[in-house]
Amino acid sequence: MERRAGSFAVFGLLALLAACAPGTAPTPPGPAIPAVEDDTCGAAPYARLIGQDATALERELIMRQVRVIRPGMVVTMDFSAQRINFEIDDNNRIARIYCG
């Protein structure tokens, strides 16, 4: 019985590690920028950055919470209506900007 409990513990640990593996965070669906009524984080002024290289963010002064999400990056599911999320695609371009 003790051996069986140990194997369940190992299985549970492996399942937990798999859940945290890179590339498991789903990309939230939606438009490239939030709709006006959903723009709680003030993302609209940064719409011009969509399609630009991610290094364009280095030249921006953004005085609020910001999160840059790269391909395969593990992202927490916490929601902050004031935070701007910049989603970077596989070509290192800004693909989407959204609040959360």
From TrEMBL:
Q: Which InterPro entries match?
A: Prot_inh_I78
Key word rRNA-binding present: no
Signal peptide range in chain numbering: 1-21
Q: Which residues form a coiled coil?
A: none
PROSITE patterns associated with the record: PROKAR_LIPOPROTEIN
UniProt keyword list: Signal
What PANTHER family does the annotation carry?
Answer: PEPTIDASE INHIBITOR I78 FAMILY PROTEIN (PTHR39600)
Write the protein's name. Answer: Peptidase inhibitor I78 family protein
